[in-house]
Structure formats: C-alpha cells, structure tokens
Amino acid sequence: MLRANNLMVRRGNRTVLADIDIELHPGQVLGVLGPNGAGKSTLLAALCDELPANAGTVSLDERAIADWPGQERARRLAVLPQSSSLNFAFSVNEVVGMGRLPHASGRVRDAQIVAQALSAADALHLAGRSYLALSGGERQRVHLARVLAQLWPGAEGQTLLLDEPTSMLDPLHQHTILQAVRDFAGRGAAVLVILHDLNLAARYCDHLLLLQEGRPHAYGPPDEVLTAQALEAVYGLQVLIQRHPERGHPLIIAR
Amino acid sequence: MTAIVRPRPMLITLGLLLLLVFWLSLALGPVSLPLGDTLLAGLRLLGLPVEGGDSQQAQLILGQIRLPRSLLGIAVGSVLALSGVAMQGLFRNPLADPGLVGVSGGAALGAAVAIVGGSLLGGLPPAIEPYLLSVCAFAGGLIVTAMVYRFGRSDGQTNVATMLLAGVAMTAMAGAGVGLFTYLADDATLRTLTFWNLGSLNGASYPRLWPLLIVAVGVALWLPRRAAALNALLLGESEARHLGFNVERIKLELVLCTALGVGAAVAAAGLIGFIGLVVPHLMRLLVGPDHRVLLPASLLAGASLLLLADLVARLLLAPAELPIGIVTALIGAPFFLYLLVRGRS
Q: Quick one: fold of A2-254?
C-alpha cells in the first residue's frame, strides 16, 4: 500500500505541497482534483520519488519509497506521466512491451499481456502500427496500455499512478479508459488518477482529494468533496450539484 | 513505418557483407592480390596448412600491412557506430553524434598539443612520437568529456540538455585551442596536423592496433547489455526510472563507453566524421529502433562502411592516398541531406 504522511515539498522558497496525508487502498480509485498549479503533478512526482519530499514520508508496503530497489519497485508501482517525448519509430507492440522490462515472465506470456493491456485500453487494433504515426489520443492510450502491462493483471499490492490519462481523449474513450482503470482496480490494484473533469471524477472514483494551492481542501467520497461551496472556494466557479438520474453520483453543472 | 526486415536475416546479411568487404580490403590496394591468393594466404596466417598460391609476397603484404589496417578499420568503424547509437539514445535524438559530448574536440586538441608542442620543443625522438600523439589525443578526449559531464551534473542528476550545450561550448573552446596551435605551427607540423584532422588508417601497425582493439571489444560487449535500458531511455528518463532502471548510472556508462571508444578510435586513426551519425540512423531505418538489434547491426555496418571508405581512399588516387575523413564526409554528408529531405516529405 502506498501511503504519504504529512508530505511537504518546496521549490525554492515556495511551498508547493503541504499537509498531505493519503493512503491508496487496494481495489480503490483515488481521484486528485484541483485548478492548474494546485500541486497535482507535484503530488504524483513526490509519491513516486521523482521529487524528494522536504518533510514527511512516502512509503510503499511500509518501506520508504526511496529504499526500494528499482526493479522490485517497478513490479509494484507504475506511473503514467502527463505526456511522453518518445520520438522513435517503435511499433505499438514494442512500446507496450517495454512495460514488461521489469519482469522476466518470458516472451510468450509477455505477448499475451501486451495484447490484453492493449485491448483494455481499446488500442488492440493499433498493435502493429508505428507509434509515430498515431494521433495524440491514440498515443495516450498506448502509454496507458504500457503501464497496465507493467502491473498486469493488477493484483492487490500493486499501485498505479495516472497523470491526466484522459486529457487528449474523445468523450467515448474518456469513459472506456476510466472504466478500464476501474476494472483494473477491481482486480485488487490501488489507483491514483489526476483528473480535470469533475463529472468523470464523480463517476469513476471512490475517493477524491481536492487540492488548493498545494494543500488538501477536501478529502473523502465524491458526495462529500463535490459540494457547490468547495468548488466555488477552490475553482472560483459557481456550480449546481444534481444527482445523475440513473447512477446517483453527483453531477456538476456550471451556472 | 515499422521494420519490414526480420532482424536475424538482416544481421546475417550484414555479417556476410562485412566478411566480403574485409576480404576485398585485404586483397585490394596499390599492389592488388588475386582474391584466391588472399584467401589462401589469410588461411595460412591463421595457421592452417594450405598449399598453393604465390605465397611469399602475398603473405608479407597481408600480414604486415593489410591485416592490421583492415582490423584497425573494423575496430574504428564499429566503435564509432556503437558510440553513435549510445549518444542518440542518451540524447533521445536520432541526429546526435558521438562528438557532441566533446570527445572529438578534446582529442583534436590533445593531438595538436602533441604534434605542435613536440615540434616546438625541438622534435621528439621518433620512437615515442606516434605513441605520444595517441596518448595525448586519448587523454584530451577523456578530459574534455569528463568536464562536459561535470557541467551537466547538479543535485546528483545529469541534465542531458545542459550536457549537450556544454559539449558545444567545450568543443568550440577546444577548436580555439587547436586554432592557436595551428597558428604556432611551422609548415611541416601544419601538414601533419591537417592530415591527422582528416583521419587515416595509413600506417596501421599492431602496436597501434591493440589498445583500440581491447577498448572496441569492451564497448562491443558492454553496450548490448544495456540494450533494454537504452530502449526504456527513449521513452524518457522518468519513464525509464519507473521501469526500474538506474538512469543516472546508465547515463554515466553511456558517456564513459563513448569517451573511451571514440577517444581510442580517434587516437588510432584521427578524426573520422559521419560514421557515428549516419550508420545508426541508416540501421534504424532498416531494422527499427530496438537496441537489441540496432546495436549489433550498427557494429557490423559501421565496420563495413569504414572498410569501404578506406578502400575508396586508397584506390581512387593510387598510389597516392586520400585521407579517409574526406571520403566518409563525401559519402556521409549527401546521404544525411537525403535523409533530411526524405524525412520532410
């Protein structure tokens, strides 16, 4: 289980993240919300040891995140960055196959997993194509398949961190991808996902963390976090909160 | 556009091509030997009891001149191509060149110090002069690369973008140093310096060959062990870290391999451009970007291309010889332009 205690990160003299106490539970999806510059990506970087914490601790299975040997950690924790700079003509299969580099599961098993992960990200039809020939949204799905393959099939004790995995996707794929993430968590993995779309967050996340200027403004189930008051305080946006007519989760409508 | 060619047949083809070029390189020159005699004399040099052929002359030319020269060509070509792959992976740019980390500039400065400095001191004993040149070039390359690497480091991390810019600056400074020594040189040393800067396999001898051969074998054995890490590095440094690789260590290893490999190659044969840039690029078009195939393919193709260039260099104006750097640039530069134009369309 990935856990952050009293996490604080500074850049220069500015405190960009403070008072973060979160736990990622097996089988659950935690959504992180907040305006631009609220510290969402900083939080993700601190959780996976990309940025050192100035105070507080991050531990994976009760062991400090920095103390894990790289390969062992990579079998338990996968991270999807906001964008990728890959500029070489790998085939889609090869890109997703890189997710299997920390494992020694053999070529046959790896090929099966690559196909299953691609299928989960609705990108199986792209398998033989060159990565460079894909559109932005297709590339995003391929990288999601890569991090899914890294932890496939996603058992208890594994953690997936996603930074805006739907930012370039069309409306249908925003839902299919988050449903795939949901299914992945359903098999036991813990997931943290940074999102901008409040309605997607309300629908697919078990818990939400609403950040404001690097500090948690609210942390809890969507019903408690997504209130008109909180959203106005954090985003400066006036909203109406309704219920989804069929599913019952909060539905946010700008006034 | 994925690799259409299957890797194994491609590697076998490249291997056969290298054997063929090697054979030609042994046979052809100012005194051309019949291909059959070359083969027989070559087998005899390996200690096999083969009969026939005009043995004496062939064996002498082969053993003393052509063989060290061809082996030098293979070592220089393969090490330059492998270093090119390493640098293009490190900088995640298919147009990177091994010279980017300053190793060529530093080696040129070291050579200038040895050539011009030696003559200013009133000439060195002929016995140590060639060794001093090699040692100075090798040391110059290593020192400048080490400085470039230092400039790129802060807070325990290596910033490759900073390193790239530091490499440009340090190469310019080394160029100024070479210019200064050129200014101080007299006519004879100026000629030596100029020819050295254009590169040549001429005058290859076993004592000059061994150090490079050891480094080349080391690099050729080491880099393929990092093929998976190089693949991951192309995704991005943090992605490679998340896949479990020790990225800082791998960056250091890549720079070290390049500094040692290119330093030794330049020390043995002078500055030879474009092999390190064009060969990896061409191989990537043929076999795709996967380093598990790209590294061995570049090794074979780099060796073949350099031997071919050397054949052109010594046959075109025979019995005179062109510096090989002119030939590689003449082949390499138009090819590079072709790739640019092709990439645009």
A: Rossmann fold (3.40.50)
